[in-house]
Amino acid sequence: KRLKRSSSRKESNMTVKVLVNDPLDASAMEELAKIPHTEILAKHHEQDELKKLIPDYHVLVVRSATKANKEIIEAGTNLKLIARAGTGLDNVDMKTARARNITVINTPGANAISVAELAIGFMLSLFRFIPRGTAGLKEGKWEKKALEGCELNGKTIGIIGFGAIGREIAKRLLAFNCKILAYDVQPQAGGLDVTFATLEELYKASDVITVHAPLMEATKHMINETALNLMKDGVYIIHAARGGIIDEGSLLNALESGKVAGAALDVFEVEPPTDDLRKKLIAHPHVIGTPHIGASTKEAQVRVGDQIVESMRVEIAKLVNG
Prior knowledge:
This protein is of the alpha/beta class. Helix content is about 35%, strand content about 15%. It contains 12 helices and 13 strands. The strands form 2 sheets. The protein has a 7-stranded parallel β-sheet with strand order 9-8-7-10-11-12-13, with helices on both faces. The protein has a 6-stranded mixed β-sheet with strand order 1-3-2-4-5-6. Helix 10 (about 250-255) runs parallel beside helix 11 (about 275-285). The chain is elongated and about 70 Å long. The protein starts with a strand and ends with a helix.
């Protein structure tokens, strides 16, 4: 549906056309509709259709479904602002956006608690065989003797990427009496009792490694055969960041050899993961997973929507006022 609002101010006749290509929370849409000088179309378009429509719009709002790639951005001859409702910017071609002087905004930290809670849930599920135990009961099995797990208490957890999500994970793990090793290119403990380490030190010492880094050239396949070989035998891998950071072929080999005791995956390099490699990975008995739902909570979507609309309010005012 289209929503149009105009301001009583007479100094500008500009109408900023906003295409919300991925849905925002309903409350966020209500607030977005209140921004003066805007005309809003809230409807998802696939890439081919989006390319045809984007020349008419000044603002493109996306989450993770839409790829604001070079082709889309270059087609946006009037595009001034890309608003990414979420943390990761791997679905936005930043190089092309910068070259065309297009502002890109996102909502770092808005979904941190939700992703952190999923990561903790993954750890407990792997350690205590919760998915397998549930599936067994539904199938009429009583596998009590086969499902002896271990405690999270006292384990050494390596957190790769110690931003907002990494810090929220650390807060919760400290309550489990865990030792936290963290790696980040800009190490900031935020007052938490954590030890910063090199990647090699983290790999060698961690019982569980959880990945929360952005996807970029430097992190592409950073968890590869070499990295896996440095890890403890029987390590657990948690991945709720961005597909492509883990070399999934190497991970599968490590699971099959027993080097990795278990893996929990919320993201994949190919989504949906329907190719043969990822089907085999998901089918492995020591792998559990979810379909990229780290930020998919009611609370996170409200926070993300509120933050992106407030940032858009500022940027749209700049466009209107020149």
